[in-house]
Amino acid sequence: MSPRQRLTPADRRAQLLAVGARLFAARPYDDVLMEEVAQEAGVSRALLYRHFPGKHALFAAVYQQAADRLLAETRLAPADSLVEQLVQGMDVHLDYFTANRNAVLAANRVLAGDPVIQSIMTNELDALRARLLAALPLPDDSAREAVSAVVKSWLVFVQVLCVDWLIRETCSRPQLRDICVGSLLGALRPLLAEDPAGA
Amino acid sequence: MSPRQRLTPADRRAQLLAVGARLFAARPYDDVLMEEVAQEAGVSRALLYRHFPGKHALFAAVYQQAADRLLAETRLAPADSLVEQLVQGMDVHLDYFTANRNAVLAANRVLAGDPVIQSIMTNELDALRARLLAALPLPDDSAREAVSAVVKSWLVFVQVLCVDWLIRETCSRPQLRDICVGSLLGALRPLLAEDPAGA
DNA sequence: AAGCTTGGTTGACATGTGTCTACTAGGTTG
DNA sequence: CAACCTAGTAGACACATGTCAACCAAGCTT
């Protein structure tokens, strides 16, 4: 029926990935059918399963691509103040969350159990943590470990809060941003003070 | 086949719940079949679906029951020191997590997207937060809001860390417990005037 | 042009969830 | 005892994921 065009595996994979990205962004995970992905790509279901072992794997590949792009697009300008950098970083990420609502919710809820999704997220959080650590003014290298732990837990907290916000809209977007930035600054204050009198 | 015993809806529901609890504790969510639950209860699949609208609902009911029991069994003895209470509370919860591994993982990963599971967890965390707030020595009532926010974020952090630990076993059990307790004490130290550790 | 490799199709099958309809059989009530 | 309400059964169906075997055809090679 269809003019059956023969592509290289890489090209076909990229095409399927693009179709998947479009559909997973447009609708919730469960509402996207493999049949549909194949159909929109003008391809048989069997071929789709040849390139991706399953629906989870297809989504994981889509999500990995999105995560890579997000990380690449959110380079902080080191000229600004720390607060400025945090605010800008949060804004970019919140833009991404709202634009890719369905995909973010699928990754964090429906597919949170998938080990592949797990590792993609872990890697993303690790990259963000390294970036933040590099941007933070460490007073003492011995504080590095403690700060790293705080940053890691803060990233988890932010992620949980953002996902919750996507569902329940418990506050305004600027409020959410300020809560996140404020909580990190508050958590870091006792660690970054010149004189750690409280500790 | 079976001598078809007729029970009241409440009794039947309780029986199905018990069977579900046993199976969901023994094996991962996806490996437990509705057919199987019905069979073990000596009942038809249709009847199971009459009492619980779907597999998610059955699991949610099982999980709700377990959460209620856990909350009921973990009453802190107010006589001990704060650190003692935290350590004991963590120990009880870690016992529960390791004993109900599969159910906890299902709730936090496979079914994390289910709104019913969501609300069960939210309620459980809220109850724990209220309990902790009551046990904490608040120096000033104006600090209450800040402490509440710290406790809430800490509970999320602990939960995430514990689920991660169930999968990856990144450290020993006492270590995990001490990390959690230590992080809360560290986060609270700048907020609480009196020495909460009593050490 | 013949042939081979490999991208791609077709259609049938297996399994699990969830729905529905018609039927069967306890136990209470008149 | 008979009627009736309702717990429970039987089994077919719809639908989605995932597997498989046989086949077809594009386009490189020789």
Secondary-structure element order of chain A, N to C: HHHHHHHHH
pLDDT average of chain A, as an integer? 85
The biggest beta sheet of chain A, please? none
Q: What is the helix content of chain A?
A: over 70%
Main CATH class of the largest domain in chain A: Mainly Alpha
Q: Tell me the total number of β-strands of chain A.
A: 0
Shape of chain A: elongated
Features:
homodimer, 199 residues, mainly alpha, Arc Repressor Mutant, subunit A, Tetracycline Repressor, domain 2, 2 domains, elongated, DNA-binding
Summary of the model, kept short:
Two copies of one chain form a homodimer. The first copy, chain A, is mostly helical.
Explain how this protein is built.
The structure is a homodimer of 199-residue chains. Chain A is built from 9 helices and no strands. Chain A is mainly alpha-helical. The first copy, chain A, has 2 domains: 9-55, Homeodomain-like (Arc Repressor Mutant, subunit A, Orthogonal Bundle); 61-188, Tetracycline Repressor, domain 2. Chain A binds chain B through residues 105-106, 108-110, 112-113, 118, 149, 153, 156-157, 160, 167, 183, 187, 189-190, 198-199, and chain B through 105-106, 108-110, 112-114, 118, 149, 153, 156-157, 160, 167, 183, 187, 189-190. Chain A binds a DNA duplex (30 and 30 nucleotides) through α3. Chains A, B: Keywords: DNA-binding. Chains A, B: Residues 33-52 bind DNA. Chains A, B: GO terms for molecular function: DNA-binding transcription factor activity; transcription cis-regulatory region binding.
